[in-house]
Hints:
By secondary structure, this protein is an alpha/beta fold. Helix content is about 45%, strand content about 15%.
Amino acid sequence: MTAADFRPVLAQDALSGHSVIVTGAGSGIGRAIALRLLALGARVTGVGRRAETLEETGRMAGADAAYAAEVCDVREADAVEALVARVGEAHGLTGLVNNAGGQFFARAEDISPRGWQAVVNLNLNAVFAITRAARPYLEASRGAVVNMSLSPVERGAIGMSHSLAARAGVLAMTRALALEWGGQGIRVNCLGPGTVLTPALADEAHAPHVAKLVAGVPLGRATSPEEVAELTAFLISPAGALMTGQLIQIDGGAHLGVPVNMLGEDGA
Ligand SMILES: CCCCCCC/C=C/C(=O)SCCNC(=O)CCNC(=O)[C@H](O)C(C)(C)COP(=O)(O)OP(=O)(O)OC[C@H]1O[C@@H](n2cnc3c(N)ncnc32)[C@H](O)[C@@H]1OP(=O)(O)O
Ligand SMILES: NC(=O)C1=CN([C@@H]2O[C@H](COP(=O)(O)OP(=O)(O)OC[C@H]3O[C@@H](n4cnc5c(N)ncnc54)[C@H](OP(=O)(O)O)[C@@H]3O)[C@@H](O)[C@H]2O)C=CC1
């Protein structure tokens, strides 16, 4: 199946009555998630540092969409806590999508202490702070958290030691919180997208290298933002009610690595 064959599977009102915070909703994967949750009837609070891109997501959703843009740097723990409390008190909270994240690509020896800190703050510490702030509201609604991870989180990748360390931390946190908060009815999961051809990836990585990554995917293509969005919606919706503590890879098999082939090229 090609990306063009993709069809949404959830019922049109699957998220009616839901209130979800999506970080990084002004671009790429986060925007696709926000638009899909809105289309399924959820109220969405989109969080990011740039007002214009966040507001553009709202315009794309249309005037009837229950969307609010909130400018906030997720690394500012006090501001994040205040934001979550504001949304939680006004509308409740049934979902939190920790999608904001990113990194520069560099070998460990070229990552300065500040560079390491910047990436770990964004991809791990900020995720903990916002998730912790959301807990009481998620407990009240028996809600769900979806953490955006990376396909290579368990097998490693060159040039991503800082980001992978942070995402591995998020994965460990996901499993710990699934246990700690399961009794409160809160579910916590991670998604592992493969290569998603967003403008942000094009800015950070060389095009020929990205093409090579995609060519190496067992199912032969990149992951689309819409596919990640549908899975996110599924996990937040009642359809995902028994799923928690998981890393779900949505990468065409890329996490399996270079195939080990004991049969040789001709399969003999
Ligand atoms: C088969 C499957 C494969 C899957 C592959 C998955 C690939 C993943 C793709 C994506 O994630 S796509 C999203 C791409 N977008 C981004 O990643 C955005 C990247 N940028 C940021 O998020 C931020 O810039 C940052 C990296 C978090 C840094 O933010 P901050 O504003 O705090 O940075 P600065 O104050 O500018 O710098 C802090 C520190 O970092 C050093 N630094 C910054 N860039 C680089 C670099 N390119 N190389 C080395 N070091 C860098 C910077 O120099 C500062 O350190 P000092 O110089 O002060 O020591
Ligand atoms: N593209 C890919 O191939 C893959 C991406 N991912 C992950 O998916 C997520 C989205 O990626 P993608 O859509 O490609 O990238 P984008 O850069 O388009 O998305 C990142 C979003 O996060 C927001 N953001 C970044 N830093 C902060 C901050 N400090 N506070 C608040 N918001 C912030 C950005 O908005 P603003 O700048 O306005 O703050 C932006 O909207 C990231 O976590 C990425 O690492 C995972 C696997 C593969």
